[in-house]
Amino acid sequence: MRITGDDETVRFEGSLDVRTAADARRRLHAAVDDGRGDLVLDLSRLAAWDTTGLGVIMGVHRRAGREGRRLVLRAVPPQLQRILIATRLHRILSFEDDLDALAV
């Protein structure tokens, strides 16, 4: 996994899974703690994620809320959209694109 960006926009490339979760969590927590406003997580180059990766996203979502920030997912790949819709997490998380329209 490759993680780039700053405290306002973080980009993932590769897989967010049990092998990469610790690094991703550490980087995202630092971005939440050090930044202001929305934290945008660009997933356009994310190839896959597993339940551990989903847990990282949810943990960062909660941490951002405690810090008065909002985690916003950008360019969620279709296969990941389906997982978010199936788990109903699309109703909790924030997106640049409207996933509710896809949930019909």
TrEMBL record:
Record-linked InterPro entries: STAS_dom (IPR002645), STAS_dom_sf (IPR036513)
SUPFAM superfamilies listed in its UniProt record: SpoIIaa-like (SSF52091)
Pfam families with a match to the protein in the record: STAS (PF01740)
Domain STAS stretches: 1-104
CDD domains attached to this UniProt entry: STAS_anti-anti-sigma_factors
Single GO MF annotation: anti-sigma factor antagonist activity
Name of the molecule in the record: Anti-anti-sigma factor
